Amino acid sequence: MRRWIRRIAVLLVVLLLAAVVVAVIDVRGQLPDRRRPRIPGLVAPVEVRFDARGIPTVRARSLHDAFRVEGYLQARERLFQMELARRVAGGELSELVGPVALPLDRRQRVYGFAGVAEEAIRQAPEDQRADAEALAEGINAFISTRPGQWGLEFQLLGLHPRPWTPADSIRVLLLMHQQLSETWQRDLLNESLTALPAARRAFLTPEVSTDDVLILPDADPRPAPSTSAFLSRGAPGAGPTALPASPEPPQRLGVPLEPLAGGTPPDVGSNAWVVSGAHTARGKPILANDPHLGFNIPDTWYPLRIELTDDGGTVRRWIQGVSLPGIPGLVIFQNERLAIGFTNVGTDVQDLYREPPVGQRAETIQVKGSAPERFTVSLGRHGPMVRPGVALAWAALDPATLRAPVSSMMLATDWASMNAAADGFLGPGQNLIYADVDGHIGWRATGVLPLRGPGDDGRVPLDGSSPAHDWSGYLAPSRMPRVLDPAPGRIVSANQRGIGTSSGLRWPSSWASPTRARRITELVAAEGLDARQVRAMQLDTVGNVHREVVERLAPLLRPEVARAFAGWDGRAEAGSRLFRAAEEIRRRAYQAIAAAALKGSGVLPIELRWYNDDPTLIDALRASPESWRKAGLGDRDALLGAAVRDVVLDGTWGEHNRLEVRHPFGRGGGLLGWLFNPPEPPLSGCDRCVRVATPEFGQSMRFVVDFSDPDATTLVLPLGVSGHLGSRHRTDQQRDWMEGDLDGARTRLRAPAVGPPLVFEP
Q1: Residues 6+ apart with CB under 8 A from 149
Q2: pLDDT 10s digits, 274-305
């Protein structure tokens, strides 16, 4: 009997080992190989070399040939990511995963992205359509020459990817629009706050702060802080520390000024700043950019370098930076003449209209394992109905706005040509930060700004029964505000209110708290900066808001907690017990203040979630007890003391703030989670620090360009280039993203090639 038990045990071990071997072989069989198929449309040979991190350098004679090979390389590493993106945009995810995805698919079908994308590609300028077609040719060359080897996810799902189309690239672009400008839910919230007095609403949803960091200044008389009508100042404080604009006055555009307004942005943000050579160690500009987006596996961005050669093979132009998988070209980049970075302006490009339906659209969703889901989308005069009787007007649903002139932007050589190209970018509003090899620095707003009717600000749903509240078009891109070589020699953009009223524009927008911009302004005030110092700034974890909150509430804390905070520097390090307590203190204090101010509205503090809620908290803490009583908030110390008195030092910040990136197959945990999800280290940084780092959201890459040494540009991702399980480039950048690479030795974008090149022949 024991002999049979041993034999069975041995057999089970052998079977298990065999299964492991088969699985390993299967995983390895899905990894990119050195195939180099013929790509339709390729005009001349294209050479691709990879560095130690798997980042490719594409050497081609034309940009369209480079885009064809870029498409092949994107699909080689990221095809499943691209497949999911086009399906999410089009409301086709249930076909893969079943009924669990129906709520998401229904929402996307209401928007109608698939039809919008098809119409947008038909209307696209010829050069932009050619860019998308070139990328599609490369993607489809990968799909057609690797049957059954598109990635492990395709194999597990039994999915054969359909050919990529130029309209699929527009779908990916629409997803970025959605992430950066979907704000209509905030309009409904604003409507629910209308029962409150105007001053109380402004206090809870501030737009203007005493701490604003402006790129374009306010005109005189300056707008009062949004909280000032509700609370008088209880303690003296410094006024705004805005960076002045350029010596020449900004162009006044003839648009009547009205009170600033805004909605709510999605959970996005970014930092970008540029310093002129007058303030750097080597006399040339330094530009830094770290976009803040949701963490994904694989990463949001795909980095690469493109070198354009003449017939003799000599490099005549080069561009390096990051692309979005599924979209041609580079989005954030440097070429031999200039560099650009982006942050979100938060421009409000959505309005709701209360109106009757005037039509409908039939939709059918294929559902894996279930019958198809059939429903109709009601259509109003202004757009699809997102609620019964509520239609959505959204710039992204206008095919004419879906423009991405990537070629002309990538090949720009100076401020004038960059602006001419950026005038054609009609996507979600962005702050474009600029520097060039001649020493110039600049900023401009891009995207579209709806021209609303008199008195309309986009904050609440409008009456759609008459054309009185219709948009009259968009602001001409050439009239977007811009600044070249401002006198201070420094420009800081961190989603704060950067466009002051001197622009002559009403700018409904969702401004972020100015706290990151203020901290960056403090850091770049130093003289003699170098790239190493700038990379260190991107890792800065000081929470100015947390530090002030703790200082002002110290008398209300437990004595032992108050003593522990004495002299605290406000840093959000993963091992800090103090920052974890400070975040709890900040959260509780804001919730208590918001609850007191929301009385009578029917809105709960947890529902408010205003993007720029720091002025509400800080100004309330700076106000006197008498101001609180006059404003109807009650006894200041009693209310705040009850909120924060029982906070203790319990655990570290990193125990709470741990990276949680989930692969689509690993969202449920278990064996698939263990297999597909990347490591989950504790994170330093916070959502109000320069180093934005939360479990699911933060610095999606870090980019630093020093024009004193353009070849030493650095770029690092949270994880890595590849999306394939088993690839050595799937998470090989995580250490440098976590710890930093201040000297730039490991994160240099132009790095030596490893191994022989791939050569694609026409």
Answers
A1: 29, 30
A2: 999 999 999 999 999 999 999 999 999 999 99
Q: Is the pLDDT of residue 219 over 90?
A: yes
| Tokens describing residue 435 | 């520097």
Phi first, then psi: give them for residue 758, nearest 5 degrees. Answer: -95, 135
Contact between residue 262 and residue 495 where contact means Cβ atoms under 8 Å apart: no
pLDDT at 427: 83
What's the pTM? 0.92
The span from the CA of 167 to the CA of 119, in Å, is 8
Q: For residue 597, give Cα distances in angstroms to 264, 463, 628.
A: 19, 28, 10
Per the CB < 8 A criterion, the answer to whether 717 and 303 are in contact is yes
Tell me whether strands 462-463 and 350-354 are parallel, antiparallel or unpaired.
Answer: parallel
Q: Is the confidence at residue 234, as pLDDT, over 80?
A: no
Please tell me the distance from the alpha carbon of residue 695 to that of residue 658, in angstroms, as a whole number: 5
3-state secondary structure 559-583: HHHHHHCCCCCCECCCCCHHHHHHH
Which tokens belong to 588?
Answer: 């509780």
CATH number, span 544-656: 1.10.1400
The per-residue pLDDT for 408 is: 97
Question: Of 378, 403, 392, whose CA–CA distance to 174 is shortest?
Answer: 403
Q: Hey, what are 274's tokens?
A: 């540029």
| Terminal CA-CA length for the chain | 68
Give the single-character DSSP code of 713.
-
State yes or no: pLDDT of 603 exceeds 90. no
User: For residue 672, how many other CB atoms are within 10 A of its CB?
Assistant: 15
> 3-class DSSP state for residue 432?
strand
Contacts of 590 (CB under 8 A, 6+ apart): 605, 613, 616, 617
* Averaged pLDDT for residues 584-608: 90
Least reliable range by pLDDT among 2-6, 440-444, 515-519, 690-694: 2-6
The HSE-up count of residue 152 (CA atoms within 13 Å, CB side) is 20
| Three-state DSSP class for residue 540 | coil
Place of tokens 């499943």: 80
Nearest to 561 by CA among 548, 578, 574: 578
| Average pLDDT estimate for 253-261 | 26
DSSP codes of every residue in 161-208: PPPP-HHHHHHHHHHHHHHHH--HHHHHHHHHTTTS-HHHHHHHS---
